[in-house]
Specification:
about 25% strand, 11 helices, alpha/beta, about 30% helix
Length: about 325
Amino acid sequence: MEDLLKIEDLYVEYRVGGTVAKAINGVDLTIGKGEALGLVGESGAGKTTTALSVLNLLPEKIGFITKGKITFDGRSVLDMSDKEMSGIRGSKISMVFQNPLTSLNPVFTVGHQVEMVLEHHKHLNKKEARAEAVKLFAMVGIPEYRLNDYPHQFSGGMRQRVGIAAALACSPELLIADEPTTALDVTIQAQILEMMKDLQKQYSTSLLMITHNLGIIAELCQKVAIMYGGKIVEYGTVEEVFNHPKHWYTIGLINAIPKLKGERERLESIPGLVANSQDLPGGCSFHPRCRYCTEQCMNEIPATEEVAEGHYVACWNRRT
């Protein structure tokens, strides 16, 4: 499969005053054309920072890429001018944000906001953009008369549908979804995920799904990357990683999922707190929470090794 997005040895820091937060610490990721990759981890693991780096949208004067490469369709994202990046955002790469109310402009109707995307990137006139917007909204289950409503007049689930319609307006090659269903109730979550699954197949769009929900990854993605402390600690196909997890963090996440069948047991939890990016521990950043920690884990950063075909793990004392 041909690569669409390639991230190599990426490091990102946030600097505020005299404080430095090391948000990303050597991330390597690849997404093929038409492929869906899930990026999983707790809050603060670096998932959203990875997505913002791809779009070159890190906070100005605060977020800095200190090392690494990001290549999209053979071109270096980090070497592009602001004008070139503006031409790619929304047309080639689109993003669905976690909270659609903050990503939609409150003073414009939802129809107008999608029409602006079409006019800017597809160079449609107002009449053509309106007709295309009507089709997009119908595709996500929003009737035409609601195009004249404002974001505050929609429920959370409907606003997320608006965000998805805007993201898909130009048939992007890569769709980044940053926890798109977190704020929604379970039934609306299921509807949104089913719709995204259908649309991805329909458009053959590559997908980067950012979430802490392993069930969503199992439903939508072919590959999964487990992130902790700004690093990828385990990577492979969803089937291989979920059925044969090797890193103790991955195992902890899987064991924390309630089981509907079989004997009911007390859920396991991962002890301790998420690694603080302002004060990362030495060696493996997961070692303070790992019951299988050794002296090597405390002092040396683990190398990433291939333990099965396409299955990579960064752990000195992984499960065999």
